[in-house]
């Protein structure tokens, strides 16, 4: 595609304007090559703090740092031309208060080129969201199951069943009123996700929510079958690349041990060939 024909990456207001329109497509990414693969297919790419569990082997997202997010954010940005990049604020970088949140959000955006930050929380984060948005930082909210609060939620449970539905609905209203341009609904029952989508004026992005949401997001290593430690019910494996990669590694190990790799075509001759392909 020529530089002039290239589609421009959407910004937060373009994403907001997609409310009720064709579904928004999103995946997480943590590296340049993966970002390149998804750039043409996604409206926005999230540098999720899931990077801690997916790439760094942590058992939760709580140990993810600003430095990790900045390094992965810079890598992902290098792989994107036409998708917007959103970056997660790590645990304990925004909960203390709006001024702290602003300092860290501004650093994430300035050092990675992200077009927006994402933070977890509903009613209790509304004041911080308002503060950031008023000062030029677009915020994607994340409610329902918020993995950074795993220790107070008591596990990775569905959020918003029965009488808890009103709490999640109140969170959705609060973040929309505070100025978030879109809201992720994680592990929220289908009927409630549809109700929130109908009631709030900003796009809802489902992960374990409903096909009726304004868009969907998945963790890329989950949907490609690279992350096999566990598979949440809401993940569809579109490929099983983990076992394929392991089989390739096992074949390589067997060939090295059998001295059948490298073969003739992988090694260099002692004399320079007269002409032909580089040897
Ligand atoms: O960190 C992440 O990958 C996320 C998605 C699950 C929405 O927040």
Give the gist of this structure.
The chain has helices spanning 12-16, 32-38, 51-54, 66-78, 98-112, 126-134, 150-153, 165-178, 190-199, 220-223, 241-257; strands at residues 24-28, 44-47, 84-88, 116-120, 139-144, 182-186, 204-207, 215-218. By secondary structure, the chain is of the alpha/beta class.
Q: What does this 3D model show about the protein?
A:
The chain is of the alpha/beta class and 279 residues long. The chain contains eleven helices and eight strands. Helix 5 links the parallel strand 3 and strand 4 (116-120). Helix 5 (98-112) crosses helix 6, helix 6 (126-134) packs parallel to helix 8 (165-178) and helix 8 (165-178) runs parallel beside helix 9. It binds 3-methyl-2-oxobutanoic acid (KIV). Residues 28, 48-50, 88, 142, 184, 207, 217, 219 line the site of 3-methyl-2-oxobutanoic acid.
In quaternary terms, these chains amount to single chain
Please trace the helix and strand order, writing H or E for each element. HEHEHHEHEHEHHEHEEHH
Bound molecules: 3-methyl-2-oxobutanoic acid
- If you compute it from the alpha carbons, what radius of gyration comes out, rounded to the nearest whole angstrom? 22 Å
Q: How much of the residues is beta strand, in percent?
A: 5-15%
List low-confidence stretches.
Answer: none
The counted number of beta strands is 8
Q: What is the overall shape?
A: elongated
Helical coverage, percent range: 25-40%
Number of helices: 11
Which structural class is indicated by helix and strand composition?
alpha/beta
Overall residue-averaged pLDDT value:
95
Strand order of the largest sheet: 1-2-3-4-5-6-7-8
N-to-C span: 33 Å
Main beta sheet: strand number and arrangement? 8 strands, parallel, barrel
């Amino acid at each position: 595609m020529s530089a002039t024909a290239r589609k421009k990456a959407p910004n937060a207001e373009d994403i907001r304007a997609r409310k009720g329109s064709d579904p928004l497509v999103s995946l997480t990414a943590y590296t340049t090559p993966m970002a390149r693969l998804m750039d043409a297919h996604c409206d926005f790419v999230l540098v999720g703090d899931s990077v801690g569990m997916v790439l760094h082997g942590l058992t939760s997202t709580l140990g993810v740092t600003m430095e990790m997010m900045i390094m992965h954010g810079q890598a992902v940005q290098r792989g994107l031309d036409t998708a917007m990049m959103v970056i997660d604020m790590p645990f304990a970088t925004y909960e203390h208060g709006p001024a702290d949140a602003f300092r860290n959000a501004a650093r994430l955006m300035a050092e990675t080129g992200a077009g927006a930050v994402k933070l977890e929380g509903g009613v209790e984060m509304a004041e911080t969201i308002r503060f950031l948005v008023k000062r030029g930082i677009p915020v994607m909210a994340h409610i329902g199951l918020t993995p950074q609060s795993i220790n107070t939620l008591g596990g990775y449970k569905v959020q918003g069943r029965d009488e808890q539905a009103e709490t999640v609905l109140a969170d959705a209203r609060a973040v929309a009123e505070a100025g978030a341009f879109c809201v992720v609904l994680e592990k929220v029952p289908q009927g409630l996700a549809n109700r929130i989508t109908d009631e709030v004026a900003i796009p809802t992005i489902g992960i374990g929510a409903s096909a009726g949401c304004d868009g969907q997001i998945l963790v890329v290593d989950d949907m490609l079958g690279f992350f096999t430690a566990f598979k949440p019910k809401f993940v569809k494996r579109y490929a099983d690349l983990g076992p394929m990669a392991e089989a390739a590694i096992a074949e390589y190990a067997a060939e090295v041990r059998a001295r059948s790799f490298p073969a003739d075509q992988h090694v260099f001759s002692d004399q320079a060939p007269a002409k032909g392909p580089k040897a």
